[in-house]
Write a structure and sequence with these properties.
This protein is an alpha+beta fold and 313 residues long. The chain has three domains: 9-93, 3-Layer(aba) Sandwich (Rossmann fold); 103-119 and 186-299, ATP-grasp fold, B domain (D-amino Acid Aminotransferase, Chain A, domain 1, 2-Layer Sandwich), CATH 3.30.470; 123-183, Dna Ligase, domain 1. 37% of the residues lie in helices and 20% in strands. Strand 8 and strand 9 (198-199) form a beta hairpin. Helix 1 crosses helix 11. The chain starts with 13 loop residues before the first strand and ends in an 8-residue tail after the last helix.
């Protein structure tokens, strides 16, 4: 699919789906509003739709020709919306059903990466009955505890003692029935955005508090985003290739973002993939695109151009 911005009307109606009912609702509302405004500035016949109240039936009533998915979290980023749109025959932006479902499941994403030989920190699934001492013995301290199916770092804790592990599990379990512990990688954090066949410049994220949590991502103004990221050209090329391999391994298409840590020995470790990244004023994909010379409105159009790729992926 390709958008002719000089004559956008043949494209038909573009519906930006955002909001929803997940824990990432507020971020999704901001992303969707920004995307909608960009499309309208470009002369696209576009409207927004929040499925919280009328669900899929309300979306069908709008009779979209294309759906721009800006719905973060469960219900929008996990393959369920993608599956419904597939059945309706409506093209949509981003990855398809399988890649979306995998990308939302941190543990299974890591299993796929490990199976194809890509580096990702060791992890263990947790339960209320877990042997906490055994977990610490296997992964070491500090370690990270995460809800498997949440984004935006919701429910994540850095655990620095065995005594704190059980409470971190219960905190994460408030967000998801499936909780994992992951070996903590000490080093610099990078994020790499992918747009079609293009890998955008890597961003090094630096947080004064040392933890890139929800507040650091969306609220605080003290988080520093380093562009250029400070890597040598050779290392950044290696990072770009790794992230492209990671995205391809789960079947990702269109656009996405991969988060990576680099340890003290210079090795890169894959953390997770985002198949519907944020598009807010704090978001990383627009920052990377701008550094590559792609303005926000053009970025939105390029993402829109990928709609329908998932039907054949």
């Amino acid at each position: 699919m390709s958008v002719d911005v000089t004559n956008p009307q043949p494209l038909g109606k573009v519906v930006v789906v955002y909001g929803g009912t997940s824990a990432e609702r507020e971020v999704s509302l901001k992303s969707g509003a920004a995307v909608l405004e960009a499309l309208q500035r470009k002369g696209i016949d576009a409207c927004g739709y929040d499925p919280r109240d009328n669900g899929l039936a309300g979306l069908e009533q709008l009779a979209p020709s294309v759906v721009f998915v800006a719905l973060h979290g469960r219900g929008g980023e996990d393959g369920t919306l993608q599956g419904a749109l597939e059945l309706l025959g409506i093209p949509y932006t981003g990855s398809g059903v399988l890649a979306s479902a995998l990308g939302m499941d941190k543990q299974r994403t890591k299993q796929v990466w490990s199976a194809v030989g890509l580096p990702t920190p060791e992890s263990i699934m947790l339960a209320a009955s877990s042997d906490w001492s055994a977990v610490v013995e296997q992964l070491g301290l500090p370690l990270i505890v995460k809800p498997v199916h949440e984004g935006s770092t919701l429910g994540i804790s850095i655990v620095k003692s065995r005594a704190a592990l059980e409470s971190a599990y219960h905190e994460a379990a408030q967000f998801d029935a499936r909780v994992m512990a992951e070996r903590f990688v000490v080093g610099d954090e990078y994020t790499v955005a992918l747009l079609g066949d293009q890998v955008l410049p890597a961003i090094r994220v630096e947080v004064p508090g040392g933890f890139y949590d929800y507040e650091a991502k969306y609220i605080a103004n003290t988080t520093q985003y380093h562009l250029p990221c400070g890597l040598t050209a050779e290392d950044e090329a290696a990072l770009a290739m790794l992230c492209q391999q990671a995205f391809t391994a789960i079947g990702g298409v269109g656009w996405g973002r991969v988060d990576v840590m680099r340890d003290s020995e210079g090795r890169f470790w894959l953390l997770e993939v985002n198949t519907v990244p944020g598009m807010t004023d704090h978001s990383l994909v627009p920052q990377a695109a701008a550094h590559a010379g792609i303005g926000f409105d053009d970025l939105v159009l390029q993402i829109l151009n990928t709609a329908g790729e998932s039907f054949t992926a």
